[in-house]
Amino acid sequence: MSNTLTATPATNFTAIGKINAKLNALDLSIDGMTMGVIGAVETISTTPATLSPSTLISFITIASSAFTIALPAADDTTPPVNGQLKYIIMSANTGTTTLATIGSSQINGYTSVTMDAVGETVILMYDDINEKWSVISNDGATLVAL
CB–CB of 115/96 below 8 Å? Predict the structure, then answer.
């Protein structure tokens, strides 16, 4: 037996039993018991770029030489919020990507995070008291200390 639930942002629902969730834009389909973090995704492939504060996951795909990507900042039109997570994943690369800001550091304790190989991943959390991002997980990226 298969149950399907389709929901729009205005739909309220209660589910009992076996649940899997998948979110794509406005569609929600449910089937199984796997739980995970759900959020919008962006792919960055041009420079200069600033990661979106509206996405949870940023895939970096680089087919050129090194370039710099800025993190969302407190003074942006849409600033990050306290406790916001940001997953940054190098998914394709023929160069080196440096996550940094020009003129000041936006990463607590570091001047930049350098990613230069496919699969390198960092997870950051925003701290609105200090208006900086904190590294809460690093898999293979180079953290450049202050």
Answer: yes
pLDDT digits (tens, 9 = 90+) for 61-79: 876 666 788 888 888 888 9
> How many other C-beta atoms are found inside a 10 Å radius of the C-beta of residue 106?
22
Nearest-angstrom CA–CA distance, 89 and 77: 24
User: Hey, is 28 helix, strand or coil?
Assistant: strand
- Give all strands of the β-sheet with 132-139 in edge-to-edge order: 41-44, 57-62, 85-93, 121-127, 132-139
**Structure tokens of 124?**
């950051």
Residue 9 has pLDDT above 80, yes or no: no
114 forms bridges with which residues in the sheet? 98, 142
Question: What structural domains and CATH numbers belong to the chain?
Answer: 1-36 (no CATH), 41-145 (2.60.120)
Element (H, E) at 86: strand 85-93
Choose between 25 and 78: higher pLDDT. 78
